[in-house]
Amino acid sequence: MAAASTTGAASPSAPPLVAPGHGRGLADVLRYRFLLKLLVRKEMRVRYRGSVMGLLWSYVKPGVQFAVFWVAMGWFLRLNDTLENFAIYLFSGVVVINFYSEAFGNATRSVVGNAPLIKKIFLPRELFAVSSGWVAAVHFLPQLVILLVACLAVGWRPSVWQLAGGVLGFVIVGVLAIGLGLLFGAVNVLYRDFENIVDLMLMVATWASPVLYDWQRVAAVVGGPDSLGMTLYQLNPITAAVELFHWCFWYPTTAGESPLPPHLLGTGLLGLAVALALLAIGQAVFRRIEGRFAQEL
Amino acid sequence: MTVTTTPTTATGGTLSAIEVDGLVKDFTLRHNRSLKELAMAKLRRRPVADTFRALDGVDLHVRQGESLALLGFNGSGKSTLLKLISGVMLPDAGRVGVRGRIAGLIEVGAGFHPDLTGRENVFLNGAILGMDEATIRARFDDIVAFSEIERFIDTEVKFYSSGMFLRLAFAVAVHTDPEVFLIDEILSVGDEPFQRKCLARVEELRAEGRTLVIVSHDLDMVSRLCTRGVLLEGGRIVADDTALRVVARMRGQDPDEAEREHARRQEREAGAGAPPHDDEGPRD
What we know:
A: 297 residues, mainly alpha, B: 284 residues, 37% helix, disordered C terminus
């Protein structure tokens, strides 16, 4: 335990012999909350080192991005005519993908990136993947603020259920990113090819979900809203999360004329189940490979 | 040697702090990793990888409060053994058991980040070494005082000289509170006054009854600091005796003569009242 025992080795009740190097995985991360907090803070400090505006940058970037969407896509490309408040539709999907990309991508690189530490000191290595997810969540916040400001400006009135849907979407993405991050972060130690594979996956992720288009276009091609193709499309947890974000942020700003994607709540819960299953798999693979980290890095 | 699980050892009823039984560690040396190279190796029926046995059946029990020197020339498996005891690596065969909290001073400054200030690094490194927030806060002043860099504690570490960096890193490491300390080649940090201070602190830790396992090539230092010495050669233990006798053996001296010489020197020092710190033994 981390509790200060000033008596040291002289304590009468001797602790049992324990085999070193066998942590309890993600459960240990909870015990190392303080270190997790410091690792997250370190990431934030390092990212904005030597910058005058600091964290303000993470507001400026999504703000400009949203303005570009609004002007170029909504007005110039006239996408507002096909989909009401297109910029908000687009942005509420983009923030999901941004969060997912940063969390998953950085978690994948976190093990190799912390090689000096992993080779020298035993820690629950899951900490590095979890802290990547946490840092991504911190960067998600300013984007959320920009999104909320835009939503409120056009008369956003969400119901409690819609808000709960947004939270569910966020949880799905967070769990999925850490689960896949553990999986690929561990395999990446053995074969660095996986960094590139993850980059590819993230590139596809933007297009595999209804971020830049709406779900009806997919339904029209694969054979209707209740076809097998559509079900497969909706099995992607990211698709579920993006649709939940649309429902939470975009839908309450419209007249409510666009049809909702089929079984929105069901696909959301299924997405969470898939994400949790991948987290369990990721953790299992991570623990299998973990014993070889120090010698492979 | 037989593998026993009883905690008591032959000498007295003291518990063991570290139990290592039949430890084997292999390293895989992969020649190449790219797809093309793998395919070529397959075609030419060349082995894709070689294994190298770094530790070959090591049995070692360390009692609580003992200070053990792991000795051996480069590549004998000392550092690998230390990494297996700390849990950074896992054994291929055999068993390692450690009683109580363990801290590896395996490389000071691992986990220091150049863009953070000294203060932030003390907290980060302390947490990495297993201290909780309250403990670090309570010991912060001691750590800074020990490192003697009070003026620069809020400066980013990248502006530190290498000596200042090592001082701070070492100060954090020796203020952790584990039952078992693993120390790898770090007592050679800083200038001589600071080195002396580090040694004094390690002596203090030993006096508190903590278990020390020290790897160093400074044979004079370890024979002064450690009660027991274990000599590794090619991944096996070839000698296990007092540190003084093992060091003498490594130097090709007669262990009995070395012991008599040591006793004479101690008598002289006790007579003269000199501090037991001057280096007079031959170096290699």
